[in-house]
Input
Amino acid sequence: MAQVTLDNVRKVYPNGFEAVKPASYNIADGEFVVLVGPSGCGKSTMLRMIAGLEDISDGALKIGDRQVNKVDPADRDIAMVFQNYALYPHMTVRKNIGYGLKNRKIDKSTIEAKVQEAATMLNLTEYLDRKPSQLSGGQRQRVAMGRAIVRDPSLFLFDEPLSNLDAKLRNQMRIEIKALQRRLGVTSIYVTHDQIEAMTMADRIIVMNGGIIEQIGTPAEVYHSPASTFVASFMGAPPMNLLEGRVDGGMIRVGDTVVGNTTLAVTGPVTVGIRPEDLEPSVGGQLRIDVSIIEELGAHRLVHGHIAGQALTMQIGKDTAIGDGPIPVAIKNNAVSLFDHQTGNRL
Amino acid sequence: MKRIKLETILDHTVLIIGSLIMILPIVMLLQMASTPDIETIKNGPGLVFGDQIPVNFEKAMFQADGFSGANTGVRMLYNSMILGFGFAFGKIIVGMMAAYAIVYFRLPFATMAFWIIFTTLLLPLEVRILPSYEIVQKLGMLNTYQGLIIPLIASATATFFFRQFFRSVPEELVEAARIDGAGPIKFFIDILVPLSRTMIAAMFIIMFVYGWNQYLWPTMITTEEDMFTLVRGIKQITQSIDNTNVPEYGRANLLAIIAILPPVLIVIFFQSWFVKGLTESDK
Output
């Protein structure tokens, strides 16, 4: 078990492209941290630097108390689960799981015992003598997990491990991975582009964009107080509504409508963020929304409309009746976030 | 009754004619190997098979016709086997290792090195046979197995095939192996070689047959009779017909049949692997 410390870790490729801008953070022992962001945001590069598959251009990386910048991946006491599982196709499940231990010159009976233990934990016992090609996607994923577990690493790294699975299996594996991590108590870093995985699995989320860390926080913090318009629009499905508005004497306006007030000392143009589920139809509501489309999602509905010429989404319960045309809508208390008009940073 | 399509008839006709053309010389060999030499001299190749095969086999395999008496069929078969296997394994090992270096290590000028190797495909042995001979001679390797095999062991074909194959092996496999603590040599032996099984089999067939059929090089390198290979030994027999009154057609032809057999057996044995190795792409 170990904590991970990054101090101004940075990645610059030989062609001058800065994939990861200097990043500093600390991951506590046993914590499950999810790195999330769109494709090309540097999250995988960050993970690969921690794994040692990619050189660190600058800064210091510590796993436990040891600086590991120059340490070989095999000696970093880590285990990694890859997106395509990266199982050795010619080896049986048993050999796949035990290969890392074999290379560490551990004696055969110990390897066998550990492989059995991992297989039992992952319900793989009956597949131990099969080759990866004879397994389903979910089973292969389990083997990849098994390979990570038997090594008793102080750090687990996951590189989008569920993105090759179908939706149903993904939900199931998500829970399994999380439960397993809880049980083993191993510090874990998990890379994904799926914000639902990030929200459901993480103790803390690190949101990245363009090589920069936009926000580090618990799922609740990231969701309810996004640090920037990027985080606001990336986390949450449907994303947060971002409207052009202005603040005059503490009153927040979108168009001519007052959507709330603020104690912040700002005046002039701002970006107003409101989560779709913080809007609700109400006879006395201060907003007039021009409804154009209603999406039926079963558990709830999404109402797409306009306010002061800007698109807006509202999430309503499945039983809430609603018609077309302008309707009055209310905003729940403390549901309005304000962002700088220029930089997009939270005010 | 099912109607036979014109297309099927056409296809089969072409195939049957093709196989007849391929098989006829072999039938001829068999016929002459089974007929007494005197008959062959009188009538030329015929359609009647004789009973001389055991006699000719005995002569071909165990009788030498040189000065030293060392170039029996058995000896030549043995030499050919060494050349064929040494040639095939050597080329596979060198080709695999060269491809491994080119694909997996960030060598300076790796791409250029590859293309230089590749262009040697345009320079067959015959082009460089004089300098090659001189080197072998100066190293004192004339009339040795090393001299027969080593100068021919570098292979652009094998390097190229293995390079293409290695490039199709997923990058993540390399990374997983690195994390599993497999160094370059372990990765090569534990992962890459087993993954390349079918490729190796395909290369083995091609290279074995290629080595087995070498004629010019063994003729130059081996002057002592106990180093003769089958392919050049057959010629030796027909050359020595001056010594006898009746040319030994039967014996020479039987030796030719024996020379055909090992490559044929290897192709039959490795056939399914061969096809897999050249066509399989889902790695």
Q: What stands out?
A: The mean pLDDT of chain A is 90. Chain A touches chain B at residues 51-53, 72-75, 78-80, 82-84, 86-91, 99-100, 103-104, 147 (CB under 8 Å). Residues 80 and 157 of chain A are 5 Å apart (CA to CA). Chain A is about 25% helix and 35% strand.
